[in-house]
Write a structure and sequence with these properties.
The longest helix has 23 residues. This protein has 9 helices and no strands.
């Protein structure tokens, strides 16, 4: 197959390749980018195409693999790796410059519900929400780790029951 025949056959598949790209991305602009990238790879590696085989299947495979590789790359780029000793960056809450009145009210209501709990439930729960690990809570309060876990679990259930409006 000559280069001109290869190019013509590839261009004639544009509509079906574009539909396939749209089915993968669900976004028209991303689909067009994927189509261009597929064309680029197909033209770059046309010497890898085995003559008298299915060109359409070959192009679809290039597109699918390109989509998967782009997806994996995007996931890696959006993954935060925190090498600090105490995972400072992952545990550091994002600061909000503006506190909404309803969120401040909700915060007060939730704190009121926590304060109404018995100390045996309140203290382990507060420690857990402050970032202590189960083992640290157990050692500090001289409890078994299973007891700590169950108290935190039951505290959550009690709070969900008493704060149904905040679900």
């Amino acid at each position: 197959m000559t280069a001109m025949e290869f190019n013509n056959k590839l261009i004639s598949m544009e509509d079906s390749l574009e539909r396939f790209a749209l089915s993968l991305t669900s976004n028209r602009e991303e689909a067009k980018d994927l189509l261009q990238e597929t064309y680029l790879k197909a033209l770059t590696y046309k010497d890898k195409f085995v003559e008298f085989t299915n060109l359409k299947a070959w192009a679809y495979t290039i597109m699918k693999n390109t989509f998967i590789n782009n997806y994996r790359k995007a996931i890696r780029e959006n993954t935060t790796v925190d090498n600090t000793k105490d995972l400072f960056y992952l545990n550091n809450a994002k600061e909000s410059s503006m506190v909404r009145p309803d969120s401040e009210y909700a915060f007060k209501e939730i704190n009121k519900a926590i304060e109404a709990l018995e100390d045996e439930f309140k203290v382990p729960f507060r420690m857990h929400t402050e970032g202590y690990k189960y083992k640290e809570i157990a050692e500090t309060l001289d409890l078994k780790i299973g007891t700590v876990k169950s108290r935190i679990f039951f505290t959550r259930k009690k709070l969900m029951e008493s704060l149904k409006d905040y679900k």
